[in-house]
Design a protein that fits this description.
Distance between the termini: 24 Å
Number of strands: 4
Number of helices: 4
Strand content: 5-15%
Structural class: alpha/beta
Largest sheet: 2 strands, parallel
Order of helices and strands: HEHEHHEE
Mean pLDDT: 83
Number of domains: 2
């Protein structure tokens, strides 16, 4: 999943991983690509409700500029939350849940 996000970065792109607080498999990428493409990769462990509000505002503001629907699964309702796989479905970066 992280490799797929890295592969989608453009020159000067930034990737921020938020909430990846459980052990996962190691991530592999070519460090030359990071340097030559001027990528920034960072992470945030703790975040507050205001940060979620900022993310939602960003997604809304950029909905016509980026293919969010192509990288996030179709939303699953809270009643069906148990059907959401632990990892995002193949070809997506994140599973979506709709309240």
């Amino acid at each position: 999943m992280v490799e797929a996000a890295v592969a989608r970065l453009d020159i000067g792109g930034a990737l921020v991983l938020a909430g990846s607080v459980m052990p996962g498999r190691p991530v592999s990428f070519d460090p030359e690509s990071l340097v030559r493409n001027w990528w920034t990769i960072g992470g945030g462990h703790n975040y507050e409700p205001r940060h979620l509000e900022q993310v939602v505002a960003f997604l809304h503001r950029t909905r016509d500029a980026y293919p969010w629907a192509a990288v996030v699964s179709d939303p699953v309702g809270l009643d069906d939350i148990d059907s959401v796989p632990v990892s995002a479905p193949p070809g997506t970066l994140r599973a979506a849940v709709a309240p």
